[in-house]
Amino acid sequence: METIQCQNIKCQGCVKKINEALLQKYPSLQVDIEKQNVVVEADKNGIAEIKQKLQELGFLKEGGILGKMKGFFTK
């Protein structure tokens, strides 16, 4: 199982959005609102695909200084 640390997972609506995007392809996917993470069983390519989708949905921190600045201004 792989744990992917996320951000902005605040409610069941967020969980539903993630599940609708990923659960069918990754049935082991579990979203934890309290811990702000996603736990899933997938290979390296699957993890990369999941991270890409989470970033598109706005639940994954962007890397680099721009991502840090964006996170600072959206809190």
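That was protein one. Protein two is written in the same sequence-then-structure order:
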Amino acid sequence: MSRTTKRKHVMREFLMDNFDLPSENQTIVRVVQSRGNYLFDVESPGDEENFLVSMPTKFRKNMWVKRGDFLLVEPIEEGNKVKAEIVKILTPEHIKEFTKANVWPKKFTSKRPLESEEPEADFSLSENPNRRRPDLCEAESSSETDSD
């Protein structure tokens, strides 16, 4: 299967999701840090310590995960450090459906730190945290020139 065909199938599965609720062995987790090589350090809803999850081959180079994103994972038996594998990358629509069905963990109900108070646009792209906002740059430069 070519790379383009594979990407098309993965994106179709991701976008045409039917919002199934998690099964008994699946867990909702939050990404704390990327460890490289498609491994992510995640925080579970319980009081357990953080653990590593792996991204399956079908998601690699097709889907991206960043800090603060929520994932649906399934535990795996092999391996001591990597304890689960990603089943689904959750979108805001998933979160709304899981909250309505009372499946969403109480630990993750607070707002994400990068979320602003402004209403969201139709698409779920967030602001790039590596770029300065123009209004902040102008305010900093004007205060520096006033003090000189």
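The chain has a mean pLDDT of 81. Keep this in mind for the problem set.
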